[in-house]
Specification:
305 residues; alpha/beta; Rossmann fold; 8-stranded mixed sheet; 8 strands; 15% strand
Length: 305
């Protein structure tokens, strides 16, 4: 079925962005096989997250929807000296191929941004196969709508909400940037999101249909590929987008970012080169003061005035 889906896909990519005919997609998207000490990284994330929650108390498990998984954590900096001045907000969406991980594994993202006067929301969502990809997308939209509506009470500047996502979270961040927010809810502005950051994003779902374990859980049908692949959509506004992929990641992850840069050229503000990084250390660099990726993210958040 996966090969049939790919064969019937009518979306035409530029020749230089086409995958090689003999590409082993299952191998290309097998992140664990390309990351030394993969399990140790995830265990470290969990431990660092527990420490972050203990040392930077936030508003935890805020409910943005009715489903059990529809919660988020909101970490806020010290109040701004000017009560009328709200903080920018970084909204982080985790990866895991829509099938694993949880917001509680990513609290460590928050502290470096808090220290620079920026709020951070870490969003949770339901996981496949129990939750369909369409519903996951709907959950992310509900979380962003909730954050916008509740921004004033938390001294967040509604005009400075920036969405960032890693891997599958990068896909969801781009879907949010392609959302017609006024159609989603009449009380929302079209420019709800001020900017985006895509970290190793899955911008085209078509090749994932050739990865049996992913296709089994997510059913990458021709319709899903066409309606839920960011590169098959258009950005809803002129909100700028920056991206990054690790230099040690597979050719497919590097191609995914190139696809996004090509398809969304109208809003693309450039790639942050990250040589020597793999799929997980790239995410770590996003919250690592001193890294080029952290500096670029701070600059983008600071420029959304």
């Amino acid at each position: 079925m996966a090969s049939d889906t790919l064969a019937s896909d009518r979306f035409t990519l530029p020749p230089l962005l086409q995958p090689a005919a003999d590409t082993d997609f299952a191998r290309e998207y097998d992140v664990a096989s390309r990351v030394p000490d993969f399990a140790a990284h995830l265990a470290d994330w969990s431990a660092r997250s527990g420490f972050a929650r203990a040392t930077h108390p936030g508003l935890l498990d805020l409910r943005y929807g009715e489903a059990e998984a529809e919660t988020l954590d909101l970490f806020l900096p010290e109040p701004h000296p000017d009560p009328a001045e709200g903080h920018p907000l970084l909204v982080f969406i985790h990866g895991g191929f829509w099938r694993r991980l949880h917001k509680d594994d990513f609290s460590w993202i928050a502290p470096p941004y808090l220290e620079r006067g920026m709020g951070v929301a870490v969003v949770n969502y339901g996981l496949a196969p129990a939750t369909t990809l369409e519903e996951i997308v709907a959950q992310i939209r509900r979380s962003l709508a909730w954050l916008y509506r509740n921004a004033p009470r938390h001294h967040i500047d509604r005009c400075r909400i920036v969405v960032a996502g890693h891997s599958a979270g990068g896909h969801l961040a781009c879907i949010a940037l392609a959302t017609d927010w006024t159609a989603f809810a009449p009380d929302l502005p079209p420019d709800l999101i001020a900017a985006g950051i895509a970290l190793s994003p899955l911008a085209d779902l078509a090749p994932l249909a050739a990865v049996p374990i992913l296709h089994h859980d997510l059913d990458f049908s021709t319709e899903r590929i066409a309606t839920l692949s960011p590169i098959r959509l258009a950005p809803a506004t002129t909100a700028p987008l920056v991206g990054a992929v690790g230099g040690d990641e597979s050719a497919e992850f590097r191609r995914q970012l190139a696809l996004l840069a090509h398809g969304w050229s109208a809003v693309w503000r450039g790639e942050v080169p990250m040589p020597g990084h793999n799929h997980l250390t790239l995410c770590e660099a996003f919250a690592e003061p001193g890294s080029a990726l952290f500096a670029a993210s701070i600059e983008l958040l600071s420029d959304t005035k």
